[in-house]
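LOG
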Amino acid sequence: MPKLTLTHFEASILFAFFVSIVLGIVSKKTDQERLRYGLKCFGYFLLALFAIGWAMRLGHG
């Protein structure tokens, strides 16, 4: 079986993707609301990922 190697960035994006899908499914009633909410959550995850990444970069100097 081949070994799957992900960087921290790739693993974070994959996590954000799957969590956004689950949040969209369990929290809204119509398909349109689910899709919109899932995309919004994914965008917020990516925004937080980049913001925290930059904060860590600036903190290390």
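LOG (cont.) second protein
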Amino acid sequence: MESLYLLIPMSVLLVFLIGMIFWWSVRSGQFDDLEGPGYRVVSDDDTPQPAPRGSVDKDKEGA
């Protein structure tokens, strides 16, 4: 019975701490985009990017 006097306040503090951490994560935007990072990992982005306009190729420069 005496252990309840210690365990109940500790559990209330733990719940309060978990609630504060959850509140901080929601406010800082941790749960804004849940599916985007998963799709970004599997997206095939291996296609070469076109050269920007005005860039000169070394082979065509004048040899």
